[in-house]
Structure formats: structure tokens, C-alpha cells
Amino acid sequence: xxxxxxxxxxxxxxxxxxxxxxxxxxxxxxxxxxxxxxxxxxxxxxxxxxxxxxxxxxxxxxxxxxxxxxxxxxxxxxxxxxxxxxxxxxxxxxxxxxxxxxxxxxxxxxxxxxxxxxxxxxxxxxxxxxxxxxxxxxxxxxxxxxxxxxxxxxxxxxxxxxxxxxxxxxxxxxxxxxxxxxxxxxxxxxxxxxxxxxxxxxxxxxxxxxxxxxxxxxxxxxxxxxxxxxxxxxxxxxxxxxxxxxxxxxxxxxxxxxxxxxxxxxxxxxxxxxxxxxxxxxxxxxxxxxxx
Length: 292
Fold this sequence. Notes:
Helices cover about 25% and strands about 20% of the residues. It is α+β, with helices and mostly antiparallel strands.
């Protein structure tokens, strides 16, 4: 009995069916992979919350201070970077540096090794005054904002609801006009002048009890608990400028860690006054490319 092979038309039909199925399946696989990465990212932020809380328990309620680039020469006005100070927590509280890395970050592979994470301490820090966590060390862990941004200050969403105010907070907290947050000032509250109202507001360093300044109803016991859930403390690198995304780990949004330890994912843009203020149009239109 003679066996007939596939005709050209039949072969083309099979190829077309395979192409259609691939077109349906591959995007779903990509979404599933990103969903898993986003969940892993949220897990990282929850671990970082535990680190901050453990540190606070042993340091009068204060959260980890802002990061100092100890590979640079000591100076009282040396500006902080937008993350927490690694030598205060590594390796006692943070045992694995990779908790700093979002699996969706395009530079995820760059910082995988511990060698890439460490930098030499500048000799001038050996005689720098306290608090000096690198005294006696030859190298230190650089906990820069690889994947996550941390300012160490509690920002009220209504203080950054307007574009001009958001820009002013960015210039101050991200050290874009001088070094407002530096080695000398990072342990204290700072002040920002809101252009929209002319009001000078106190921006308080993160510490236990700071959420009470977010309470809107002092007669409600539940208000303090609610307040903790709206204080954003660390988040995915989400940077936009002129309304266009320039850097996202999870386009088009990000995971945000709140003071009570829970993590939420939201998309850009969020409404004015949202607790996800780093995902609002004010953040995108503030003219500050690296903020927030």
C-alpha cells in the first residue's frame, strides 16, 4: 500500500496552526513569568521590612539611616544615596545581599555576586566621628538603589500632591540642590518649603510612632493602625519624567512596601493624593528625572 506524504498546502496549514498557538501561549507564559518575578520582588520587600523593624527594635525605634558612600572621602556634608546604610545591617540583620535585587531588574545579574556588592572603605573614615559603622573595616556593602528606593523619611501624600511640591521634595530628599540629606543631617528630621502654599513642612525620619503624624481622626483608635498602612517606606525603582516612563522594574507600575510590613502593587498613574504618590502624574511631571 502506497503512503501519501503531506501536501504543501497541508504543511502550510499545520505551520499556520502552530504559529497561532505559539502566539497565544507565549504571551501567557511571559505574563506568568513576570507574575512570579513580581511575587518574588514583593517577598524581598517584606524581608527588608523585617530588617528595618529588627533594627528599630534595638535602636530606640529608629529605622536604618540613609546610605553613605563610604568609598568617598569623609566630609560632614557628604550626601546620602537613595537607600539604607548597609554597614548598619549587614551581615547581622541582612544575611543575603540579593534581597536588594528585584528579579525583574534589567541589571539583576550584575549584582549577583558578593564581590560586586562590596567596595573599599576610603581611609579617611578610619578617624571619622561616630556614628561610624565602617571604622576598622577595609570594605563595606554598597546598598545603593539597585532595585529599590529608600529615603528613610515619612512622606505625606498630600504634601507631594502638586507638581511643584513634588519637585521640591525631590530636590531636597534626592540631594539635587546641595546635600540636604548628608552624613551630618541624616539622623534628624528635615524641612521642606512647599511652593504651592509657602508652608514649611517637617519631614520626619522613619521611626516607631511616626505614623501618628498621619492620623486624621485622633479620637479613633483604629486610625493609628490605618496610618501605618499608608506610610510608604520602600518601593520598586519607578522613575518617570514628562509623563513618560524611563525606568520600571515591573512596567507600568511597582511594588510598594508600607510601614506596617505589607506590600502592594499598583500601576501608573495613580490619582492625586494617593498613598502610591511615587506613581502619580505629579511624580512623572515634576521635571526631576531621577525622582522618585
